[in-house]
Fold this protein.
Amino acid sequence: MKKTLIICVLFFIFISLTYAQTKKDSIQSAITSLKKEKISSLIKNAENLKSGNYKDVLYSFFQLAAKDLTGQNKSFGFNSTLFAIKLKLDSTLNRDYNLKNQNFARNFQFNFKLNLDTAFKFKGFTSGFTFAIVNQRDHQLADFSESYLGKVLYPLLDTIQKQSSAYTAFIVNQNLSREKRVALLTEMQSGIDSLFTNYTLSYLPEAFFNGLKYPAGLISSLRKIDVISDSLYKELDKKWLWTIKGNASSNKTGRFNRANLETIILKGKKPELDIRAGVYYADTLVKSRLSRFVVYSSAGFNLPLLITKRTNIIEFKPYLEYTQILKNLLPNEENYRFLANADLRFRITEGLWLPLTLKYDLKNGNFLGFLNVSINLNGINSN
Amino acid sequence: MITLKVTINGGIAPLPIKVYVDNLATTNDLRFTRDESFEEILNLQPGKYSIMVGGKNPQNGNTDISLTGDFKDGPDPQSSFNRSTPVFSVLYFIEI
């Protein structure tokens, strides 16, 4: 089964890359600037908001990305959250009582992007924002007080406290020098830390276990806590995430010529419901400048194909996309498009994804393939 | 009079932090839990005590624990800790 999956994946990569390279010029000359920008936008959205990466959008502090490397519309972008900036100015915002009052800043991301041509000359810039209207997937605000977790954690802490207190009394009653006493207490604390870090009892002093019938129960309780915690966090990841984002772009003279407003709803995990809708404005040049409005929507399911160490390595998303041009239809242009698409994303490293998007025009039977790469820089780790 | 300060960083504690104050000579012990960071003044009778603070950190978060005040002895092995393991407990010995 695994071999078949690997062969299918490799075949898909080969076909997509080959197709993207050989058909790139003909495809890109055929599509309008509006359509190119829309596809680029969709790739960017898919890149940023899939389940394996949705947390990066809202919680990573800084993201630097190079997009559309094989296309004519190259770009370099910078993303950050408002919270990241505030945290740089005031590190106490990371404390629980401050952090939980920073929901707007933590869920508000902004971005700037320089758009470049094939010779890497300036073509304009894009700026925008993403805001999570509903974010039930916030791990930082996870509250498990109503769960079964406490029924395992507190008995474990009670046992450790009972043994620690007895061992402390044992040391204190020996009337040792303070230096010796500190050394023995340090040894015990290091042993407890090793238990929590490495799941080992080896570094705890023998007298610590006096009167404890089943020392290995400490480790089994810790493992049980891990299992329950993982399960609870996975449940969080299935909850609702509803975002709204806006972007505006200028040309090389600084005049705004494109704008986009989009909302995205995610729910579930395997599969993950993915619904998007938006409105798009753009100037395009034919004989004269035309201002065009487009509405679009898409719906599909994102499926993790390969998961290792609780991280999605490969994701696949089939989805349908509908696009309608509301204003200034070009000659011989159809006013709507109905596409069947498939995204395949590969996690190369923790912050590096390789997404491949295959688009099939249901009306005209055309295939399109694209490649882009995003590098995520995990920024601040401030207390 | 001593002050126990616990500061949770990087999120909220998924479960309340639990504090154990044991008088080593009597059974006059104290237990309490706190949902978030706190700074608690403990008015303890003279004697020898073990104080343990334990709990669960927020995901990728950490907790600072410190004990300050007027002591006859301690706090041992040290007065402050920072712990970033998912589950943690730290213990003090003090004499007041």
